[in-house]
Write a structure and sequence with these properties.
By secondary structure, the chain is α+β, with helices and mostly antiparallel strands. The protein is built from one helix and eight strands. Bound molecules: zinc ion (ZN) (4 copies).
Length: 119
């Protein structure tokens, strides 16, 4: 009986040792560099993909819209007043900058270590 208890004690001390080993992912800082923005805190805008502009929904990106011609009674194309005929508009999410605060880390540049979360 005494022998078994001793073995159990050794096993326990081994387990405690492995518990004390530093987290390889975060080196016990419990946070790691944000993977989405790579620690910058700013990421490409999701809405426009970093371009800063979006297709104009009013004209479907053509820059022209169909409008009734009251003189002839037929349809004619006129310049889209929403985008000024460009077919593209500034992105509403980033205001045309193409970049926004990283939504994963909210600009803090760091995220909680996924390997320490269970603690
Ligand atoms: Zn960790
Ligand atoms: Zn955008
Ligand atoms: Zn337009
Ligand atoms: Zn981030």
């Amino acid at each position: 009986m005494k022998k078994i208890k001793k073995i159990l004690f050794i096993l326990c001390s081994f387990a405690l040792m492995s518990c004390g080993v530093k987290c390889e992912t975060c080196h016990d800082k419990h946070e790691i560099k944000c993977t989405r923005c790579n620690g910058v805190g700013i990421a490409n805008c999701i809405s426009c993909g970093g371009i800063g502009s979006q297709m104009c929904y009013a004209c479907g990106g053509t820059g022209n819209v169909m409008q009734m011609d009251y003189v002839t009674g037929g349809m004619r194309y006129t310049m889209c007043y929403q985008c000024g005929g460009l077919g593209r508009r500034n992105c509403l999410s980033c205001g045309g900058a193409g970049r926004t605060t990283c939504t994963t880390c909210h600009g803090s540049k760091k995220i909680p270590c996924p390997d320490c979360e269970q603690e």
